[in-house]
Amino acid sequence: MDQKNQDKDYQITQGVIHVHYKGFAFVSPDDVVNFPKDVFIPKHLKGNAIDGDHVEIAVDLKRKSTKGPEGHVVKIIQRGKTQLVGIVWFINPKGNYVLYIQSLGNTKTALLKKNEKEQFQIGDRLLLNILDWGDENAPALSEVIEKMGSIHDPQTDIPCAIKDFNIREDFPKEVIKEAKKFPSKVVKKDLIDRLDLTHLETITIDPTTAKDFDDALSLSQDEEGIYHLWVHIADVSHYVSSGSFLDQEALKRCNSTYFPNRCVPMLPESLSNQLCSLKEKVVRLTLSVEMKIDKEGNLLTYDIHRSYIKSRKRLTYEGAKKILDGKTRSSHLPLLKLMEKLCLLLKKKRFERGSVDLSLPEIVLLIDEKGQPYSFKVIEYDITHQLVEEFMLKANEVVASHFSSRNLPSVFRIHESPSRESLEDFYSLARALGFSLPDKVDAKDIQKLFETAKTTLYAEQLSIAFIRSMKLAIYSNENVGHFGLALEDYCHFTSPIRRYSDLIVHRLLFDTNIPLELDRISKECSEKERVSFKAEMSVVNLKKLRLLKEYQKEDPKRIYSSVITKVKPFGFYFSVDPIQLEGFIHVSELEDDYYEFYPERRALRGQSRHRSYTTGDKVNVIIKEINLIQLETSWILIQEKKKQQKRTRRKK
Asked: How confident is the model at residue 330 (pLDDT cuts 50, 70, 90)?
């Protein structure tokens, strides 16, 4: 093919690259008009780009993969970061240090040349300045800025993640100075032209460790059975004005980042934990969404007010549940009972429109003052969590509809429909696990599947697989709806203390003339959200490995119950109960037989003894080795001597 024709097959654009730990990547184009979807970059076509780089790519106009449009990296325009945290992995024969970089996974290592003045040990964590990125097959050449500690010291986990993922930690002096100008409490002049809602029975319900209370709730029911639901949200926009130092810094952060036992806030704590936080028994400025809902769960009317409230009680989820269960006496029991009633009504309406309930228990690690995890607890997604979520969802929907119906500019939370191929893979998994699905699957079939799965061992596995089959929810100034919630209009309005998108929505509700680059803000919020999530999960996964290492010390032969999640020709993956950690057994480690892969059954089957390993099977494993540097584990499979019984499939 000549060059002229070849050029017609590609279109050049630019964007930010997001590299998966397995090596492939996606680029979020700057030009969202001509490239509304992320572009898939195969592992061998990303060149020397790393996660967060601004790159130029050539999009293949002829080739489409199941992951969407496909392309390759032409050149790197700007590095996303020049400083990284590397862990001394090994020392090569020349005496140079080879460093593993957790934020880059297996895609890139760094090399530190031997220096007589500085000597390091395997496991040392070093803040690096990259001198030369090398090429895609060679490590980056680096120099040490500072030694941050050792991988064996759990107190260094969060500081290293903050540096490695370039999370903004300290606030500039001008931001702190600006925040200090505000009073320590709400003053009378701020109440002018606001609706006084201090007479309402208002409560907050949050996690035990929460300090920044974004939202509060009020609810009553009149003689005709009409529900009067109030969702009150902290009015951060009153204090953080557009273009201020606080606003500029909040945009650079876009969100708070939550690590175990520590939060890196979007706003200084004098605002996030004090003046804006909806603490009990103090007056706070709010934006309140007033909703009237009939006995069938239909929204009748709504209003959005600048207001002020005084929360009667700060409840935790656990405390609210004890009140509802009759284990604790409280004057707020009637209110909580009414909230439970409306919650179930709204859930029913959401179910009727096709929304899928993917709620799962949350695993919370218990960590001591030195950063070492010593145990965990399982937080059930009970009615108290559900009622807060339902009311927040309703408020977000109402506010988004308010903008959409008036054709007003805003930042929407959008979630595009998954590809047919991705859903087919999920359907195949469900069928392989024994669940009945028709040839043509609709929303009702998926809902029925998850309702049935709740009583089985496969609920978590199916939920995770379904989420992975879908595209990421992102922010956009173009409203295309929210697939996961089955909504045409949805935005984030309820957490302005910790999300910049919500702060922008607050401003736009009362001032549509603010000159904002909503497309740029939306992209920035989406990008920073991804980075924070990766940083958070890197620490959580490392803490889980630290906990397993402690368990291994206590009992080297401790047995873990697990469920097989994926079967490949080269082995199978499994989820370790109950801490939701993924493990892997290579087919070569199945020493009792020669195993072949059967793709239609998603199974490995022994040719002589006919033992099989299939998606959904329960297996018992023992930890063989834990590698804290690479965040990897190796396991020993316990193969029972008795013949494995065939799994009974559910009746259709």
From this structure: very high
Q: Is the preceding omega at residue 265 within 30 degrees of 0, hence cis?
A: no
| β strands within 438-534, DSSP E | 474-476
CB 521, CB 500: distance < 8 Å = yes
Q: Is 626 exposed, middle or buried (0-12, 13-18, 19+ CB in 10 A)?
A: middle
Start-to-end CA span in the chain (Å): 54
- Contact status, residue 42 vs residue 14, Cβ threshold 8 Å: no
Using CA atoms, how far apart are residues 375 and 561, in angstroms rounded to an integer?
Answer: 17
Mean predicted confidence (pLDDT) in 606-612: 91
- CA-angle at 195, arms to 194 and 200, nearest 5°: 140
Q: Which residues contact 507 (CB under 8 A, 6 or more apart)?
A: 237, 242, 514, 516
Between the alpha carbon of residue 180 and those of residues 73, 74, 252, the distances in Å are: 46, 48, 20
- Compute the distance between CA of residue 211 and CA of residue 275 in angstroms, rounded to an integer: 12
Distance CA 1, CA 8 (A): 11
User: Does residue 651 register a pLDDT over 60?
Assistant: no
CB-based burial, 289-308: b 16+ in 10 Å, e otherwise: bbbebeeebebeebebebbb
Hey, which residues does 195 pair with through a beta bridge?
307
| Cα 591 from Cα 604, distance rounded (Å) | 13
Q: Which residues contact 505 (CB under 8 A, 6 or more apart)?
A: 399, 410, 411, 491, 492, 493, 496
- Here the tokens at position 273 are 């934990």
- Quote the CA–CA distance of 536 and 141 in Å, as a whole number: 27
612-614 sheet: strands from edge to edge:
595-598, 603-606, 612-614
Q: Which residues pair with 98 in a beta bridge?
A: 90, 111
Residues 142 and 147: their CA atoms lie apart, in Å, by 13
Q: Which of 100, 133, 105 is nearest to 18 (CA)?
A: 105
Q: What is the pLDDT of residue 274?
A: 95
Q: In the block, which residue shows the tokens 């007003």?
A: 408
Q: Are 204 and 311 in contact (CB under 8 A)?
A: yes
Full-model pTM? 0.90
Nearest of 353, 351, 343, 355 to residue 389 by alpha carbon = 343
